[in-house]
Specification:
This protein is of the alpha/beta class. It has 12 helices and 8 strands. α1 packs across α12, α3 packs parallel to α4 and α3 packs across α5. The longest helix has 22 residues.
């Protein structure tokens, strides 16, 4: 594994918490800081691909599922195969419904947890990415475990709501199990609070509770505010920086970029330190 390239899995077993939006905007924001970035759509719904302007991901000739199948079948492949280049300064490995079928196939594959990592290895060596961000599906299944096995760290988007936060313990259990049995170097960068509406007392109380207790988890300083303009981005197939560059959500994601880069720099300076839990 290339130690210079940081692989981040953006994961939460609950849907609708902003995983795809975070993956896209964090990736574009990092690219705007001069970083070389690859985004990986590991969700059969193809939401990241659609959000980046790929309107019909199910019609693509090559997607993540095809590359992972080639790894399983021990077939040679070019590291650039299937990668769509230069969308708002980032590269994309698209995903589509074929990932759902692949998930079933992987159940009978030896070392099935390492298939995605084995695909990423040649890609990282050939193209020297600074960051690879993996948009995980809202479930802790074999595809998500593949992402966690390939990652250096995890960011957990979470809404400031009771239903979103109550599932964190189960997700943490899965991450800890992956770290214990598959990827001992996996760390947690932190919980990212998304769609925050500080006008409600419920949101304020949940945020305060998470920051004070947190179950040993770091809650990132950055909070992503709720915004209708942000919801429009998926329809437009653009990042928040292209859709509403001067808005509050763009400012928040720019702050997140700085925080993620700062976390990485601290851990490069202190290689033995733990990130998060």
């Amino acid at each position: 594994m290339d130690t210079r390239c940081k692989v981040i899995a953006v994961a939460n077993q609950k849907g609708g918490v902003g995983k795809t939006t975070t993956t896209l905007n964090l990736g574009v924001g990092l690219a705007q800081k001069g970083k070389k970035v690859l985004l990986v759509d590991a969700d059969p719904q193809g939401s990241l691909s659609v959000s980046m302007g790929v309107k019909q991901p199910d019609e693509l000739d090559t997607t993540l599922a095809d590359l992972m199948k080639m790894v399983v079948n021990d077939e040679p492949f070019s590291p650039d195969k299937g990668i769509i280049r230069g969308i708002e300064g980032v590269d994309l490995m698209p995903g589509n419904i074929d990932l759902a079928g692949l998930e079933t196939q992987l159940l009978n594959v030896m070392s099935r947890e390492y298939v995605m990592r084995n695909w990423l290895g040649p890609v990282k060596r050939e193209y020297s990415y600074d960051y690879i961000l993996i948009d995980c599906m809202p479930s802790v299944n074999v595809l998500t475990v593949n992402a966690l096995a390939a990652a250096n760290s995890v960011i957990i988007p979470c809404q400031a709501s009771y239903l979103s936060t109550k599932g964190l313990n189960q997700l943490m259990g899965s991450i800890v199990k992956v770290r214990r049995t598959i990827n001992p170097k996996l760390r947690i960068d932190g919980i990212l609070l998304t769609m925050v509406d500080n006008r409600t007392n419920n949101a304020k109380n949940i945020i305060t509770s998470l920051r004070e207790i947190g179950g040993g988890l770091r809650v990132l300083d950055t909070e992503i505010p709720f915004s209708v303009r942000a919801a429009e981005c998926s329809v437009e197939g653009k990042s928040i920086f292209a859709h509403d560059a001067k808005g509050k959500v763009a400012a928040a994601y720019d702050a997140l970029v700085g925080e993620v880069m700062s976390i990485e720099q601290r851990n490069r300076d202190r290689p033995g330190a733990e990130r998060g839990a």
